[in-house]
Amino acid sequence: MAVWLLLLLLAASSSSSATADEDAFVGVNIGTDLSDMPHPTQVVALLKAQQIRHVRLYDADRGMLVALANTGIQVVVSVPNEQLLGIGQSNSTAANWVSQNIVAHYPATNITAICVGSEVLTILPNAAKVLVNALKYIHSALVASNLDRQIKVSTPLSSSIILDSFPPSQAFFNHSWNPVLVPMLSFLQSTGSYLMLNIYPYYDYMQANGVIPLDYALFEPLPPNKEAVDSNTLLHYSNVFDAMVDAAYSAMAFLNFTNIPVVVTESGWPSKGDASEPDATLENANTYNSNLIRHVLNKTGTPKHPGMAVSTFIYELYNEDTKAGPVSEKNWGLFDANGVPIYIMHLTSSGNVLSNDTTNQTYCTAKEGADKKMLQAALDWACGPGKVDCSALLQGQPCYEPDNVAAHATYAFDTYYHKMGKAADSCDFNGVAAITTTDPSHGSCLFPGSLGKNGTLANVTAPSLNSTSADSSADDFHGGAFTSIAIMIGVIFHFAVYL
Ligand SMILES: *[C@@H]1O[C@H](CO)[C@@H](O)[C@H](O)[C@H]1NC(C)=O
Ligand SMILES: *[C@@H]1O[C@H](CO)[C@@H](O)[C@H](O)[C@H]1NC(C)=O
Ligand SMILES: *[C@@H]1O[C@H](CO)[C@@H](O)[C@H](O)[C@H]1NC(C)=O
Ligand SMILES: *[C@@H]1O[C@H](CO)[C@@H](O)[C@H](O)[C@H]1NC(C)=O
Ligand SMILES: *[C@@H]1O[C@H](CO)[C@@H](O)[C@H](O)[C@H]1NC(C)=O
Ligand SMILES: *[C@@H]1O[C@H](CO)[C@@H](O)[C@H](O)[C@H]1NC(C)=O
Ligand SMILES: *[C@@H]1O[C@H](CO)[C@@H](O)[C@H](O)[C@H]1NC(C)=O
Ligand SMILES: *[C@@H]1O[C@H](CO)[C@@H](O)[C@H](O)[C@H]1NC(C)=O
Ligand SMILES: *[C@@H]1O[C@H](CO)[C@@H](O)[C@H](O)[C@H]1NC(C)=O
Ligand SMILES: CC(=O)N[C@H]1CO[C@H](CO)[C@@H](O)[C@@H]1O
């Protein structure tokens, strides 16, 4: 029977992996443009339940970094574009940023990389002139703190700066950016970092006006005669993603950089769109992300570098309902704000990929109107002989409020019920308890089994997300929306030839 959902994470065993010291992994991006953004503790609960071991934040939100501490989750943080000019112009501003946002959290929070800005060349070209300095200043500050080996510094690029991306062997970076790219690549090489690239086959497909077959964008199997052939290398390409990664390797090679690995910082597919976006569907999003995860974890590599892992962060964890732009912009997420999956991925037979049922969560609560004395007796039993950890109910702890026997009993009952593997008879307590599907979590009081946000986020005890430092690309369409039509002409031409 189908196992429900999902996902992600580390593959085991080692081989020739390109991603510095580590095997291929699939992580997720955590955008925060939600009208009811879950509390950091709830975000982390969802990550844990889904075995997501790698995340990228669009800022260095203190609440998230605190919640991610001691979880084993590896975290990529970002300098938001708004802070780039300041950091790129001042060594000491960069040093302060590192001390407040990195040094203060490491090693409890396993920060592994810093994204300096996001698609700066295409979204904020005015800051391009300080980008390399910003990378260097952040790196110097890490060196000063002796963290430069553990934490890599790079900057995610839009794949739209790679021109003539098909055939991949002829791809090159838009020459007008060479004055920035050459010192940047030199920096990445000398610091052992990687090229961060955002790849959106969805936009490539949309803008190709039917010339790119949908299956080629979605990693679906193609008959050999439909594969795209690179006329120089005779390598066969069966998906846009690989072609784009190889295009990046070629573009770097044209500038004489041949040993910088690629990490894909964003890729995904929207599950919903407006009338002009007919391929933003649940089925396509599911197909793309499921195939992407399998592809990355299988360490197939690319035709140019078979077996060389291309670790990838899926865009993105949550649907972001307050994003501007077309309907699709709000629908790239794997989950809604309650932690309920948008779709159930086709990952059932992926050996290394852990799955978890997050669809029908159940909880054990005190029955409404139950006798208070009986509730108190059951509560005492649960926290005593029942061996439930009731420390969260103590004064000053997250589940102390509301301070009444029904609320406290509900917490104890639910904890016991989950401890007992949700066996139906573990939610009885002499008839004063009942199973429910409503998550009783509130504020920062997170109940066992709770995966997402519910209830009010006001009056929380942990630091909350700083809304002003949220997702730096908030007001921009990300990635491929900027892909120029010029890039696609190469693709169109070659498809015309090879398909
Ligand atoms: C971070 O994670 C990596 C990979 O698992 C591990 O090697 C490293 O020791 C971790 N660092 C800290 C500070 O936990
Ligand atoms: C920036 O600061 C680092 C130490 O944090 C220092 O090594 C470096 O020389 C400084 N660079 C400039 C341009 O001041
Ligand atoms: C290359 O980049 C420059 C500077 O951003 C831009 O004006 C130009 O249109 C780009 N060229 C192509 C072919 O995209
Ligand atoms: C790359 O190296 C070759 C051979 O050393 C040289 O001719 C060429 O100018 C270099 N290209 C760049 C962009 O540095
Ligand atoms: C995984 O990789 C192997 C060879 O490395 C290949 O034969 C197989 O088709 C791949 N599976 C998927 C799902 O890509
Ligand atoms: C979840 O509940 C729905 C409606 O009750 C049911 O159709 C579905 O099969 C359940 N899923 C699982 C995995 O139990
Ligand atoms: C599934 O999620 C629950 C939390 O709801 C967690 O207790 C459980 O360990 C998870 N199972 C797996 C296999 O990750
Ligand atoms: C919750 O916070 C608001 C303002 O942030 C405050 O006015 C209110 O008294 C708080 N409520 C409780 C129960 O602490
Ligand atoms: C939160 O936002 C405020 C207002 O912009 C800012 O002053 C503060 O430094 C931010 N705090 C953090 C932890 O980012
Ligand atoms: C999934 C879940 O538990 N949703 C609940 C969130 O809280 C509101 C009331 O605050 C309930 O109506 C929902 O059922």
Automatic annotation (TrEMBL):
The X8 domain, residue ranges: 362-447
InterPro entries named in the record: GH, Glyco_hydro_17, Glyco_hydro_17_plant, X8
Reaction(s) the record says it catalyses: Hydrolysis of (1->3)-beta-D-glucosidic linkages in (1->3)-beta-D-glucans
Keywords, sorted A to Z: Cell membrane, Disulfide bond, Glycoprotein, Glycosidase, GPI-anchor, Hydrolase, Lipoprotein, Membrane, Plant defense, Signal, Transmembrane, Transmembrane helix
Gene Ontology terms for molecular function: glucan endo-1,3-beta-D-glucosidase activity
Recorded GO CC terms: plasma membrane; plasmodesma; side of membrane
Membrane topology type: Lipid-anchor; GPI-anchor
Location in the cell: Cell membrane
GO biological process assignments: carbohydrate metabolic process; defense response
Residues annotated as signal peptide: 1-20
Regions crossing the membrane: 477-498
Predominant location category: membrane
EC number annotated for this UniProt entry: 3.2.1.39
Highest taxon, organism lineage: Eukaryota
Record-linked SUPFAM superfamilies: (Trans)glycosidases
Any single Pfam family the record assigns to this protein: X8
Protein name: glucan endo-1,3-beta-D-glucosidase
